[in-house]
Fold each of these.
Amino acid sequence: MELTSQHFLALAPLLITSATAVVVMLAIAWRRNHSMTFLLSCAGLNLALLSILPVLKVTPLSVTTLLQVDNFACLYMALILIATLACVTLAHAYLGESVEGAGYPGNREELYLLIILAAAGGLVLVMAQHLSTLFIGLELLSVPTYGLIAYAFFDKRSLEGGIKYMVLSAAGSAFLLFGMALVYADAGSLSFSAIGSVLAATGQPSSLAQLGLSMMLVGLAFKLSLVPFHLWTPDVYEGAPAPVAAFLATASKVAVFAVVVRLFQLSPLTSSGMVYTVLAVIAVLSILVGNLLAVLQSNIKRLLGYSSIAHFGYLLIALVASKGLAVEAIGVYLATYVLTSLGAFGVITLMSSPYHGRDADALFEYRGLFWRRPYLTAVLTVMMLSLAGIPLTAGFIGKFYVIATGVESQLWWLVGALVIGSAIGVFYYLRVMVTLYLREADIPRRDAPLKWEQRAGGVMLLAVAILAFVLGVYPQPLIDLVQHAGLHPMG
Amino acid sequence: MILPWLILIPFIGGLLCWLGERGAATLPRWIALLTMTLEFALGLWLWATGDYTLAPAPGAAPHWAVEFHVGWIQRFGISIHLALDGLSLLMVLLTGLLGMLSVLCSWKEIQRHVGFFHLNLMWILGGVVGVFLAVDMFLFFFFWEMMLVPMYFLIALWGHSSADGKRTRIYAATKFFIFTQASGLIMLVAILGLVLVHYNQTGILTFSYGELLKAQLPAGTEFVLMLGFFVAFAVKLPVVPVHSWLPDAHAQAPTAGSVDLAGILLKTAAYGLLRFALPLFPHASAEFAPVAMTLGLIGIFYGAFLAFAQTDIKRLIAYSSVSHMGFVLIAIYSGSQLALQGAVVQMLAHGVSAAALFILSGQLYERLHTRDMREMGGLWARIPYLPAISLFFAAASLGLPGTGNFVGEFLILLGSFKATPWISAIATSGLVFGSVYSLIMIHRAYFGPAKATSVLPGMDGREMTMILGLAVLLVWLGLYPQPFLDTSSATISGVQHWFSTAFTQLASAR
């Protein structure tokens, strides 16, 4: 297959992101300068984001049999790039602005390099239409993440989190590879659509293919931290520096979920039979276990970790339904979830900025925050309500979509689990929320720096909060956007 | 254009209160009072000028006195559709009135974070007005859930923990939130089910109440969907097996919170049953009526017995609400025009009398710093006026002729007697227990040996005006309820038509 300029245009976001990684690396080699690295990364990511606009004119387009650039990929690329940009601005505030001032004591610049590399991996993933690109993308996403989690390596918890993530992620990858091999043995092809048509030809997938698909599911469930493969999540979220945790919760998970959706949409039979049952069971377990364990947490990062397990459980409901509203629901839900998680981790990041040891992640450190930092608290309140799915916030629209999908496909057990899960969820989100407003206790406290809202991270955070509110009140633009990004199986 | 303003005024007023906190400490109170007065005045103006002889009825597109309609989320056929008829007008008036009172009664009680308190108070009222006006199912649910958040804050931040420390205010607030939120989600599932059934029949995706009324539901589906709605309303009303949030929330809430909870929030459930559950699912409701009425009966007695056993004066009033709402539930499912009209009067009268009792117990608390009736006793001699006025409202609560509660209960019992004589007869005996707990409350708190001899401060002008105003209103409702009955009659006869048709069909089928 010959690559034309159109193909290169279609790959522009990926190419620009990769080029940014190279430029940032060279810049670091030439002269260490925190602000310059930050500006370069921002410029590159913004450029990549803007390049999606011209890409929309040439979609849908297959770039070799490996990558498929369509509106679906564009939507998720945009989501990943926006999330990465937000994490980068947060990281800038977190590491400390100047070398002389307070902040992160080690080398600051490599963090940006790692984040950009991981983002490039995410871009590959959402375009993948072939098991090999799926694997390459996944590894490109995961390997820099080990470094990111352990970036504050002089903190024991960060190092522990990094190693834990590395070991478990490698185990997940092994499962994934083995599963792929089994599927290949049965279908004789690695491309999503070919697998789909081969499986469809035989009617019910053979037990070999089903086993392979289940093992692939295990590998992907590791990355999505679905129960029972969730054990790493709370520790890693707790150990990772706050901006990195934000990246893990948003960009990384969105990319993996997008590729799962594409796989199941392009080869529908992959989610039939045993795999279907397994998915439904995992969904119910994730919702219940995630929410129940979150109730017990007094560390806000761990709490958000468990809550993300539950949220991906909700998302699985749409995946199990996989028809009608499902793809649209997933798009809307992921968009609102990314927004909300960014907001929540953003507040934690600003509370812990600039870096000085452990992050401010114990719930008691947030006691009475409202009376000291009212706007920052308002942001976190909106985010908690959004996570709980209360009207007037973006999260409600997402939850509404998922329930609509569940009812449409008559998945009563899953809808029931969602209702119960939400009721449990409300309990701990409210606990966080009310803590913010309680009277202050006499304990040494940490606060976001004064005038936090006048810096890049703060501006981003306020924008996220306003967007979460506006989308909750008037979601039509988001729905239009996601509807355009429907997934059409190509022949 | 007036309907969106009815909703927006409290929201904007609430924001202004918050901003006004930076100025004088009393500024938020005045802004809030002004906001609610404006709301109430708008309601009165609508009452004076509107024509409420038209209301939704079977067989035709719904008529409304005032309507407002703009598109919102086209993807699902959701629009911002507000409409007003006699029933919603009465509820909005009640909201405006109790809103003013809840600002007034917290004038001295709330001293911390005054601006934020009034922000929450105003937003609750805005959400409640939204519930009363919304005729798009999505919008209705939107407001239904939204009003929980400020109520949660109100209880959690300004409430009182119980003296023994067992029940904290945060516990009460969280319990309230989880109960209503979970049941609300069940209603959302039912709403979506209804919408999708309608969509499969007609190919039109819409959340509009007027359109959904026309949906032809298979019997089994209708029953399940009706149950989804009923669960949400039953929790809020509250019906007995799912009532346990109510005493905690009431007892722990600040006075203004209790006034809003008992006076208005409980009424949203009865309103929801009348507006949505009955007209949308008449056949299933007719089939379900015996069960619902039995639940109502259980509520009457259970509420009365537990009220009698309480030592906390606010918990006592809370359980009395459970008992009174039992009457409303029986009336709603009796299918008689008279009983339904009685339910409307009972809602108004209970709103006023329960609010007054909560305000009075709030005033007692400000003087004695306890709500425990074991520590009261002999107050008749120690506080001028207050005990006598309490006696009046306790008498109203037990249904003394001359007060609105009597009219409401009398109409309910009379109306339901024809169709279900046994239930009526048993419910009537519940009134006896009503007298018992009302009088025992007065006896424990105000009579008996005094615990101290010091004279406590009497009621000031603000307190006196509030309470006397409510007393006058209650007597008006008791002596001349006709204007209220006229206003709601069109709506009620519509509801009754839907329901009685279903009843006759059910009877002939058996």
Amino acid sequence: MSSSIETPLHYFHGQQTGSGDAQVTIFESPLCGHLNLRGNPQDEQFLEGVESVVGVKPPTTAGSCASSGDISIYWLGPDEWLLLLPESRRAEVESELRNKLSGHFSVVDVSGGQTLLNVRGDGVADMLKKSASYDFHSNNFPAGRCVQTHFAKATALVSKKDDGSFDLVIRRSFADYLASWLLDAGEEFGCRVVGGGEV
Amino acid sequence: MQTNRVASGGRINRGNAVNFTFNGKAYQGFAGDTLAAALLANGVDIVGRSFKYGRPRGIVGHGAEEPNAIVQLGSGAQTVPNLRATQVELYEGLEAHSVGGWPSVDFDVREVLGFMGKMMPPGFYYKTFMRPQNLWHFYERWIRKAAGLGKAPLESDPDCYDKLNQNCDVLVVGAGPAGLAAASAAARAGARVIIADEQQEFGGSLLASQQQIDGQPAMSWVDERLAELGNNDNVMLLPRSTVFGYYDHNFLGILERRTDHLGISSPGQVRQRMHRVRAKQVVLATGAIERPLVFANNDLPGVMMASSVSTYLNRYGVAAGNNLVLFTTNDNAYQTAIDWHKAGRKVVKIVDSRPEPTGALVNTAREFGIDVMAGHVVVEAKGRRRVKGAMVAPLNDNASAVAGAAIRLDCDLLACSGGWSPAIHLSSHTGAKPQWNDELVGFVPGESKQQERSAGSAKGAYSLAGCLQQGDEAGREAARKAGLDGESTAASYQVDEQPQQPQQAMFLVPHAKSTSRAPVQFVDFQLDVTAAAIELAAREGYESVEHVKRYTAMGFGTDQGKLGNINGMAILARALGRGIPETGTTIFRPSYTPTTFGAIAGRDVADLFDPERYTAMQRWHQQQGAEFENVGQWKRPWYYPKPGETMHDAVNRECLAVRNSVGMLDASTLGKIDIQGPDAGEFLNRMYTNAYAKLAPGKCRYGLMLKEDGMIFDDGVTACLGPNHYLMFTTTGGAAAVLAWLELWQQTEWPELQVYFTSVTDHWATATVTGPNARKVIEKVCDDIDLSNEAFPFMDWRDATVAGVSARIFRISFTGELSLEVNVPAHHGRYVWEKLVEAGEEFGITPYGTETMHVLRAEKGFIIVGQDTDGSMTPADMGMNWVVSQKKEFSFIGKRSLSRSDMLREDRKQLVGLKTRDPQDVLPEGAQIVNQPEHAPPVPMQGHVTSSYYSANLGHSIALAVVKGGHKRMGETVYCPLADGRVIEAEIVSSIFYDPKGERQNV
């Protein structure tokens, strides 16, 4: 089955700009499960219901994320979160959520519509500055923060990792544009896209 | 020969000679020179011709204020017009030309005109060349040839420009004494600091200063500050960076010239970078610009600003002449005479307008044996292509007129200083109204409108100690207001400085003749505005300084009147009999100096200009040679031409394939919104014109969405996925607007309805398999559901496995044929698509694009929102009342508007079909429809063609149109007069051309 899968940056894997050793690496994660979750943050039952499935309550502080085991949960809005998890667990977690939650909520599989990138290397701060007006300086954006923001002329969910690298979740239909944009932005540092098993 | 280069001194590298050309002639300068410094070193007097009169002009200043030495750098694609030679760093092979002057700067045709006749007054062109009116075009050609500044390149620029977004606590503009003190103070307080300066080196006025700070040369202090700032990770130093604009919300633009000093081209590097800065606080330490003195022939080459003479001497080791006359109204400029004297050159005289100058610098000059003529002014410069002498006359007691005969002083350099004007440009950009200060004889920044403060000479502090102290205070205040509450103590920088005497205000130097009779006294060098012109403007009735600016062109040049504006406004004030504060000043606007378009565009060019959105099957389409159509930002296959096929051939083939066997369309771009919640059904009921509340799981329904005005806004199919769970399809172009529309109503009008919306447009890839053989194709790759019409009827959907992938199949149709729309998560999109192509091979499955989709749906009379509707069409106009439910308990959006009297008019434009008399004639879309083509104009319009195609299936052309009262005009003949003179006759018919009973989609 895996041969039937093409992640959004499939055709970019191995592409490189700039000369010499690539100082910036854009790593496209293999297919992940992406679940969009909506519910009432004032509803303890909802928060606890989610916790009972994913191991952590949905963060209610704007622009924060949390994780438990192999599941990460990102604040997208006052009543909206993104769950990122291994694709192998997606169906099980989705149905568990439907079982455990009651009342008004929504769970939507959006795995095919977006992709997870990790961007790391010396030029990353400048690449982000070229792409977005948001302040990604560690004073303003420490590890554990996330933000949905304009990214070039598209959008991205950006989060900061403990190791100082950045995760980007971008939409599939804009992925070709954004990959081209990032390769261009990283050209002065040397920039490479890698995917799947080529880490 | 660098005839004017002094033996030693300056911040140039004499070991590194640099070759360059100016107006085609070869010269040599040194690394560290600006083009202006190198030209002066080589004794080049004339660097340009004036804009209006073609008078010879020389270098006046040494920075952004330079009005005359405006050059075109390089040639071809990389050429840059309108650069100030005073700001162009010299590099090997530099090639520059004057922007003005025709046929050349050494001989200019306008100069002859100027000598022949009287000087051209303001409005000259309108007053002279507009009569007779038809001759203007003849004159214009020659006038334009002779005038104008710079040439834009004709080729596209091969260099790379980009943009960086910056955020900081404190942005310091200017790295002179005040700016460096401010940046140091802010950085010590822990602030994230950006300090930008337009020059290649930090230091500002200190670069050419002989003063000391903390007992050492000023540049040592600069080096200390740079070391301190450079070691701080929170500080960004931006040399060669002009802060060109200050916009709302403390947003500022900086143009950084990264490689311009290395050469005209910089392959593989970023030539210029735009920094888009959001600063919490700003310190404007932009310095001050020395003010010229307005006297007769003050534009002769060799008349320069006093501080510029010093700068060329001290910083570049260039003496811009031999025998200097200094004309001043203040103490400050005496330093120039002292510098000149120390360099071993001759100071002929210092001419000081003040009756009794007694300041410390005055005394120093006298001690050097320099002769000071107090109470005198230079009334006129003598010479033709270079100053040869200065006519000096005594002033009367109140400095309003000359009080005796003029004597001539021979000289080849006339340095002038009318005091200083704070560089308040950026403060002006914020809307702060400049304030006149009598003591300083200048405008200082007005009350702050944004989070900014000025410091140093930008604020009128002209002593070095004052600049340092104000800078330090401003830096600490800015850091504090940016939220950094760490301790910060005042820095103490020691400067040994003597107080200066007050300067004299002198905006127009008196002449024995009246202003209008005296030789020209220039106010604005770049655009040739004279004192007489300003007085004339006042006499002609202009009172507002903004009107005078536009009438005389004062301050309109690329230099924005950095030198001349204050004098001009003061001259206007006097002509109007008003004070300067009441007359006011024009408002400076961005850019401070011209900004290149390349930097403004950045990387948003060529393929990156706008996002192209692709479906998961994009590469397949490309490999099949598809032509693409833009639909919003999406690229959709338009048609798939085979070798040798025209578009018409390809579309005909695709259309026939669908009706006769099977075709496949990539429908992934349609908007898709997942809707969940206990009130989802009720919400849909209110959004759509028809009923949704009772739609059962597994069923689909087509709906129309209206705006409040009753006009069609979007259409599409919504499927019920399960209890309280729906999937809405929208048009491709309308997806984002529809989602926003749903959120708007839920959040603002009906927050009590519990419903959530989530876009799943990108999640699904959709292959529409359509045609009589569609089922046979799907059967080959899907065996887990019963695909028969009985088990899976039209307007139902099913979960199924297609080619081993979990899918949803919808039996909805936009072609009127049996259609199965296969939806899979997009990462399986290309795989499943190719499996369907494989399965369809035996039926000749034909991929088709949007053009065929349009033809097929038009054959069925299906509308496209935005093509057949234009925001003024109701469901009734479209003949779609069948989709409007009047029985719903709650209303639906737009319902009330549908019963307004205008909506019930019988002569509204209504959707009909048109059949041309000649079946091969295809009407142009947009063609107007009339009843009588021979009617005398204006011909009453009946409507227009909205969609028009050739239908290969029907063997004739088909068109949809909106026609007044069209629904009741079936069979009537109408006419479409075309732009080419032809008139096409057509019959009004039903908008459904094919399979009117809709049987084919139900099989």
Amino acid sequence: MELIKKIKKTYRSSTDHSANKYLMVPIFIFFALLIFALIRSPILISSSGIGSAIILTSPLILATYSLTFIVMAGRGGVDLSIGPFMGFINVSCIQLFAAGYLQSPVTFFVYAIFMGMLYQLFFALVVCFVRVSPIIVSLAGYLAFVGMNIVILPRPGGIAPDWLIPWGEGFTIFNEIFLLMILATILFYMITHTAFWGHLKLMGSDERAAFTSGVKINWVRIVAHLIAGIFAALSAITFTALIGSGDPLQGTKYTLLGITALVLGGASLAGGRGGAFGAILGAGTLYLINFILVTFNFGRLQSFISDLSYGAVLVLALLVSLFLPAVQRVTKGLSVIVFFILMSFAGLFAVIHGVYDQPIIDEAALALEKAEAVKVYEDTSKGERKIDATGNIIVEDGSSTTGEGSSQGGSLAGHGITQFTETPGTIVLYIILGLALLAGLLYLLTKHRSPSIISFVVIVVVMIVGLIFDPDDKKENLLKNDNQINLQSNQSSIETFSPQYFSLEKIDFLSDISSPASLLTSTSYTIILAAGIILLVSLIVIAMLPQFTVRAKSTAILLFLAALSVIILGGISYNNLIGEVDSSTFGIQGYGVILVGLLLFVITAPFVHSKIKNLTNVYIFGFSILAILAVYFVGGNTFNVETDVSFYQPQIISDINVGDLSAVTYGEPKRFFGESLTSGYAQFAYSILFVFLFQFFTFIAMDHKNNYKSFSPLIYIVIAASLLWSVIFYSIGYSFYKILIVYVVGIPITPLVWQFMGVYVEKLSRDQQLSQWEEIK
Amino acid sequence: MKKSAFIFFKGLGLLFAVLCGIGTAILGWYDGADWINIVSYSLAVSALILWGWYHFSIRWIHGDLKQDIFSQISKKENIDNKELAPEDYEENFLLKNIRQNRWVVSAFILMITIFIFISFIADGFFSGRTLVSFIIFIAFIIFMGVIGQYVRGQKSVFIGISVLIGLFIIGSLTIPGFLSLLNMKSMLVFAAFLGIATVGQTFVALLGGLDLSIPFVIGSSNVALMSLITKGVPPWLALVAVLILGLLIGLVNGVLSFRLQGQAIILTLGVGFMVKGGVQILVSMGTFSAGTVFGVVPEWMRNLASMGGKTVGLPIPPVIIIWIVISIAVIVALRFTSWGRHLYALGGNRLSSARLSISEKGYWIGAYMISGFFSALTGALLLGWSGGGYVGAGDIYLFTTIAAVVVGGTSLLGGSGGYGLSILGVLILQIITSVLIGWGLSWEAQQFILGLLIIPMVALYARSPHIRSQI
């Protein structure tokens, strides 16, 4: 036992992530962009969207891995030659293949990896023994390979091997490229757990110190370059799969792209700082920037604006790294992993929001509208309105028809979403997420074995089971139909119907109780209702009252989290067909609330100096949901049904590289709710409530150190947060002046409120002491 | 054996030199060259070979003689030789001496092997002209190697100049018309563009930074100037505006990268992208052209940079004169003003220059502003040369400015080097390019060879010290 403890301790210290604080900024940028991109165009998270994202980013990610090792080795060495070198492997493989060599995949890979290692070995030897600065060697390599590529293959052409071409199609999530990526990432992580990685980091940050402490720096450098060569070769192979042919010029782009991704991923070009995670984030960020730009229509100016924004992002990412020490100071004690998990929750909710939120259509209003403005309505939704596999609305008519593949195996930006696919990738992804949450539940169960947890898990299981065996779906129960469960034979039906397994939107409480067939369902619905309400209320009570023990609070929190997972499942299953919208109990508001609540939480999280054990975060999370609930209901209410018939959901272009985007308009998002909330008094009241709650969370977050002094170093977080929120709020339809008012009122008086509360808390404790004293007396 | 070996080698060298001279004459006659050329080249070849041979045979003989001839060689070395000497020398002094100079010898063998190899694979490569130029080239290297022993201090200048002369010899021997006035003029014009663009890079490199925004600023100023002129702004005003724009971009670069000096290379790249995108957006607004602007360049601006330009009646393009003036000004500024000396001090050691109360910020930003200014100037001059605005005009300067600085011998870590060296680098690059073009190589082959040449050229003198000596 002693030994095991010891091992555990050393393991923990070796994987201590406190040194990874630099990842905070890339994580934040990535998710902010992700959410923005999802709001712009939910196509991103269809299975073809994710598939093409993977195939487009994988060469970049692998190239960035390769660069990471070389940059980590220090001496200011950035491998400028990575792009042309990828091009070299690409064209040489294509030419050799055409000449009859490298026919089997094995020799193909072996050749590419051998060439990669050979070149990098040469590179390392020159750097080590000729002692020329690495950047000059890579510059020389850049020029040499640019020339050599054109000599080998004068113009784009050739055909990749038959087995390689399907890899690059990118219509599904789980393809070979994804597998390759995962294997490469595993390799990377395996390397980071060796002593070599430590030596590399030491050497990169201080070569002299490494030398004097006995690290064999030449060997470390050579090995780093060899590993970089392997990744460069893999990157070139994925690149070949992507373009499906040979191209002497395209690869060259990856030099600048890779370096940009490296910087965006938080790696230091001075050496000693970097990792796989940052590389993935950086490459993803680049992809998202490109994606967002494509959703706008700049016409002729498109490429210029893309230049401009690439540059701006690069500069901003670098400037942000200036504030890294401040970020580290503020987020002291907050684990990067926790931060990432929380941000990915926010991202997940944005995903759900993007895919499943549809305008809430009031049947009466719609009828009225149809009667009054048939023509206008028909203009906006002319043609067949379809729901695709992931719930997006596609308007198909002549002018802006989707899915005309314009670029098979073409340019970087053009490759990708050419059609909506019928593969179950998205659904599989969601099912995996659900299973992961269930696994989390089980983990909690084993870790904290207590009556309350066990009972809650039982409740969850009952609910899910009850939902799966929904009697309404008996006729089409896919689990019993062998033909339909076969994904190959009938994929679309699975896609359309499988979310209904967890359906929450058909809840019709206790109305069907007379029918014996739906007894189980109705019971489980009731349990959901009861459990949800009771859990939430008890959580609030427990959290608010200081008399409860920490243990009671933590249990309540765990229960709440579990309930949340159920809500998420419900959200995922909200496959909201137009006809059934108004029967939903968990529509756009719910998702919006969760989304914004999480954002609020993410912002306040740095206030709390905590690890995952500290559940203060989660309290704030719960509260923020309530607060935003109020705000959202107030803010969303700006839609006038009778005059405006355009919908919140923008029409989606499925082809990224489509030439004429002018047919599509992106309007300000609009929605409408019941009439009762339109009054100005209600808005005012909710705003006040929001301001109050905002104060209260920050009060808790500050851990009772409530004065100006402890607030002032944190004010810029609040400001940055409010900026981000404003964007998000605005994009989901909150009018701008309201946002402004809330912040103008909310932020300046925050310290005042804290002061007041602090005084109140002190008074309470003094009263308590007095009463104790009196008792003693 | 001592004396006899000496005499033997001397005789052998003489024989070899005479044979080579005769061979040169025969080949020259075979090529149908002018008889004056044949005689002079033959004489030059035999004299050089003789000289080199003499030198090496002297170096290989016993220490006693050596001491008489080379009094400069330090005493310690002699003592070492003496201690080791007797038995080794008696046995096989040739092998030992080859071992002592094994890098040089292997380099020569490698060169000869490459030459033979190319002669076999490339049709029409082997001719009297190439053989002679190869021999002369090798002889020149030996000559320079010998001279180099006496050079103290400005070693990199010496190597740079010798490489320059060597390349020049190769070019003039292998390419007909290389020495013509027109070719010289065109080489100088191109070198002037590169040289003016390299001013800023040199300044920045002296502080230990790099400016990758140069090509984008060149392209942007090129397009912006053309666009302004077509929109009716007086050309001189447009030029001033563009130059001020360059200064401002440099200011932005400097201010932003000051705290990020390690990552200045990427930051300037980002700024460059922004500038390129922004200027193109501004330029193409309200027009139908995307990226390229057509228009009429004023005559004086065309005269400034075109090949047929005249300076005060002389048939020298003014851009060359401008480059020379700028060069003199920059060199003087770097060498003789306190500003220049402070720049070196900062590049050498930030801490000690801070102790001398030199403001790092001011110099850093100043260097980047100079860089922006000269990039804009290059862009403006290129407009005169090309006659139409094109945003990709500066693209070739992305790596060539760095290459010129590096090849010249300015350390990228800062503190050593100077614009004089960069001029050397510019000229070397220009001559290499001209020679490669003269050999009929395509652009991609030029790139390839340029890439392969950079490492050896840098390795000649810009090697960093071993880690052991840095501690």
